């Protein structure tokens, strides 16, 4: 375990070490690996999803009032990513009217755009 941990510059946690041991035909319970890593100085680095500066968050204008009487008063949008054949990605950007849940417009693009 120690050699696997050191070969990977301390980036492996108990899950990856368990997988590496299984690949070497050594079967060990994952809880046992956790226990050993706690006793010895085998602390893997914590994962951080932070990738840079945080952009400005839009104001909450709806305040959880997801209903409206007149149509086209409140419109929402979201971007959904689709992986196609593990080669490229497509992004779906629908615009929905909250009044009746109808999709008014949509765009499919190769890049993320809100327009």
Question: Span between N and C termini?
Answer: 51 Å
Structural class from helices and strands?
Answer: alpha+beta
How many β-strands, per DSSP? 4
Number of helices: 3
Please state the CA-atom Rg, rounded to the nearest Å: 24 Å
Strand content: 15-25%
Principal-axes shape call:
elongated
Query: What is the N-to-C succession of helices and strands?
Result: HHHEEEE
Instruction: Give the % helix.
Output: 10-25%
Question: The biggest beta sheet, please?
Answer: 4 strands, antiparallel
| Residue-averaged pLDDT | 85
Number of domains: 2
| Low-confidence blocks of residues | none
Question: Would you give an account of this structure?
Answer:
The chain is α+β, with helices and mostly antiparallel strands and 115 residues long. The chain has two domains: 2-39, no CATH class; 62-115, no CATH class. The chain is built from three helices and four strands; from the N terminus they run αααββββ. Strands 1, 2, 3 and 4 form a four-stranded antiparallel sheet that branches. Helix 2 packs across helix 3 (30-39). The chain is elongated. 4% of the residues are buried. InterPro entries: HTH-like_dom, Transposase_IS3/IS150/IS904. It comes from Sporosarcina siberiensis.
